[in-house]
Write a structure and sequence with these properties.
Order of helices and strands: EEEEEEEEEE
Number of strands: 10
Strand content: over 45%
Radius of gyration: 13 Å
Strand order of the largest sheet: 2-10-9-4-5-6
Largest sheet: 6 strands, mixed
Number of helices: 0
Distance between the termini: 40 Å
Structural class: mainly beta
Shape: globular
Length: 115
């Protein structure tokens, strides 16, 4: 079963950037659809970006389109989320998972954007 470890979160001012990483073990991700999700306090988890497979199509939620970019490094079996022009409303715990999502989620990585 694939194990996923997210990293790269932190505290950043509005307008700043962060790059999140999702390192996988137990399964090669190059042919797997992957997504980045986030959950803000008091809200349901939502998908923000999707990569169907390496070199395949991508999808972004309206709230992040044009600011976030999902990418992969097959050699490192890692999926990234580049986040630019961050806004306070992007504050959340960010997770990665396969699509459809596996039953087990990683610990996530906290992103906090100050105004």
């Amino acid at each position: 079963q694939v194990q996923l470890v997210e990293s790269g979160g932190g505290l950043v001012q509005a307008g700043g950037s962060l790059r999140l990483s999702c390192a996988a073990s137990g399964r090669t991700l190059s042919s797997v659809a992957m997504g980045w999700f986030r959950q803000a306090p008091g809200k349901e988890r939502e998908i923000v970006a999707r990569s169907m497979w390496s070199g395949g199509s991508t999808y972004y939620a309206n709230s992040v389109r044009g600011r976030f970019t999902i990418s992969r490094d097959n050699a490192k079996n890692t999926v990234y989320l580049q986040m630019n022009s961050l806004k306070p409303e992007d504050t959340a715990v960010y997770y990665c998972n396969t699509l459809p999502p596996g039953a087990i989620w990683g610990q996530g990585t906290q992103v906090t954007v100050s105004s």
